[in-house]
Amino acid sequence: MEPQRKQLLLPASDPTNTGNWVLNQDISDEFSGDSLDRSKWFVQGENGDYYIWKGRAPSQFAPHNVYVEGGMLKITSRWEPDYSFAVGEGHEGNFYGVHEGQKVPVTTGAVVSKKRFLNGYMEVRSKAADAAMTSSFWAIGYQQELDIYEQMGRPTLKGDVDIKGNTLKASVHDWQPPAVRPTRKFGHKTDLSFNVAEEFHVYGAEWGEDYLKFYLDGKLVHEVTQEEVGEHWVLTNPMEIWLDSEIFVWQGLPTEDQLPATYEIDYVRVWQKPESNLLDRAFFGFEGPILYEQENRPLNLVPENSENNKYQKFWLIDEQSAQSLQRVRNERFAKGTWSLKYTGGKNTKATAIAPENSVNLLNGNYRLSAKIWVDPYSTADKVSISLNSTDTPIAEFDLQSLARGEWIKVYKEFDYPQSLSGDFMKISIPDQENGSGVLYIDDIAIEKE
């Protein structure tokens, strides 16, 4: 089957666009030029740079295996005895170019999107490599991983292997520390009526705030909700897309006669729905860091990393405030799995401060909203939210008037008098002498009036 072009770029899962999808041009790519667009894609190994790892040993990523040809992205795996493999390095007990003392000189390739995105529908049209090499379409973000598929056109092990030539396998991994294997928490595996290396097919995944759907050629093949998954739901932060090939030693090693073999991707497309919230939804929902994608992503930034750097920054809660204020997971949350928890009785003012340049508004009228859950016995009387550019809080919420024991959405209109770069938000809960009880804050948003 030859590559197929679509004039109107709409999801195969929603060809009439009833969902009002909008194409994300920063990540989507038709691979129609003579070379790969480096403004969108990081190539593993290019200029000697590797992001996170050099591949799953004994195979190693090599940049010459990634190229655009005939309107497609191609990732080729090769048997290259003369390649200079990384010496003394590897992954999970294996070394690059060597397995159990025997040479396995296999080079392969990988690309990673330079931008991340939060929720949407992602789709590729692809054909797997005809070898015992994976052809994978996956995504990672802060403490999370979504494998839309891991395919293998011709595994060399026989019998009941995990991935066969007609297997469609998807997985979700939890990378929260200590990230003890197995990190796979849920997913699905489907037997197909075809071999994935024989023809092109369209594979897609719709990732919502509280659900996940997988599609094949526009038809739904599996779906799951956050409610069904429970505490193992981790897909709450922006993710970047990976396209790569690897050796899975537990599936068998590729043989010299199988290579070269090429994983072909006709296009990558990501659609999202319009969003009225002017804040970073994940960060102001306390799920994870805010990203500064104008900065270079650190090459050692593994998903479980919670350190502040130029690329990612977290809420600042000083030592004194931390006595009564902290981010918590899977306690009470309005969306996602995290929220900001306040515990009274410490007789101290508690503040959480967002990083500089995390709020960017033009002058105008806005509405701030937040969701608050107050314990029936809490004596906390108010929550204040301010911006660095203002002398007084833009919102003060009277907690005494709120219903107890349930999530309540509160609102406050405010006027932003000037356009100011580098602004940020501060959440304050005043001193409470002999205070008691608990409250949670989640899902802070700012919308234009």
From TrEMBL:
Gene3D superfamilies: 2.60.120.200, Galactose-binding domain-like. The keyword Hydrolase applies. InterPro entries: Beta-glucanase-like, ConA-like_dom_sf, Glycosyl_Hydrlase_16. Keywords: Hydrolase. It comes from the Bacteria. Signal peptide: none annotated. GO terms for molecular function: hydrolase activity, hydrolyzing O-glycosyl compounds. Residues 3-276 form the GH16 domain. GO terms for biological process: carbohydrate metabolic process. PANTHER family: GLYCOSIDE HYDROLASE FAMILY 16 PROTEIN, GLYCOSYL HYDROLASE-RELATED. Belongs to the glycosyl hydrolase 16 family. This is Glycoside hydrolase. It comes from Microbulbifer thermotolerans. The lineage of its organism: Bacteria, Pseudomonadati, Pseudomonadota, Gammaproteobacteria, Cellvibrionales.
